[in-house]
Amino acid sequence: MLAWTGAIFLVGAATWAGFEYSRQLDMRPKQIRQLKNALQILEAEIVYSQTPLQQAFHRIARQVPEPTASLFQNLAESLLDQNRNLPDIWCKHVEDHCEVTALGPNEKEVLVQFGRTLGMHELQQQKKQLLLASSHLERELEEARSRQDKYGNMAKMLGFLAGLFILLLFI
Fold first, then answer.
1. How far apart are CA 16 and CA 156, in angstroms?
2. Three-state secondary structure string covering the chain
3. Fewer CB within 10 Å, N or C, the chain?
4. What pLDDT, on the 0 to 100 scale, is given for residue 83?
5. Cis link prior to 87 (omega < 30° from 0)?
6. Domain range for residue 87?
7. How many domains does the chain have?
8. How far apart are CA 73 and CA 59, in angstroms?
9. Is residue 121 part of a domain?
C-alpha cells in the first residue's frame, strides 16, 4: 500500500513539474504583451500628455493587470525618494519584477536598456526609445509564442511520462 502511495506521488510530482513548466511558457507571452501595452501607455503619457513620470507610472499601474501593474506601482512609489536617480530605480525594480514573473533574460535586458534612457532625452527622442523597446519586445513576443506552441503540450506529457519512466526504473 505504501509503495503505491509513493508511486502515485512520484508520478504526480513529475506531472506537476511538466504542467508548471507549461504554465510558465503560457505566462511569458501574456506578460510581454502587458509590458508592450504599458510602454504604449507610457508613450501617450510622456509624449502627448507630457505627464511627469511618477504620475505616468501611477496611471499605468491602474490600467494594466498584475504582475505588470505592481512593477509600475513600485516605480511610482520609489520616485518619491528624491535621493536616487531614475535609471537605478528602474533597473532595481525590473530585476525584482523579472525574478517573480515568467519573463526571460532577453526581456529583462530590453527593459534595463530602455530604463537607462528614460527621462534623459527630449520628447521625440524618448518616443523613438519607446518604439525601439516596443519593437524588441515584439520580437521576444514572437519567440515566446513559438516556444509556447512548440513546447507547451509536450512539457505536460513529458512530465507525466518522465514520472512513469522513473517509476518503472524503481520497479
1. 8
2. CHHHHHHHHHHHHHHHHHHHHHHHHHHHHHHHHHHHHHHHHHHHHHHHCCCCHHHHHHHHHHHCCCCHHHHHHHHHHHCCCCCCCHHHHHHHHHHHHHHHCCCCHHHHHHHHHHHHHCCCCCHHHHHHHHHHHHHHHHHHHHHHHHHHHHHHHHHHHHHHHHHHHHHHHHC
3. N
4. 66
5. no
6. 23-170
7. 1
8. 9
9. yes
3-state secondary structure string, 40-78?
HHHHHHHHHCCCCHHHHHHHHHHHCCCCHHHHHHHHHHH
What pLDDT, on a 0 to 100 scale, did the predictor assign at position 142? 93
Taking the alpha carbons at both ends of the chain, their separation in whole angstroms is 14
**Which sign does the torsion angle of CA 64, 107, 73, 124 carry?**
negative
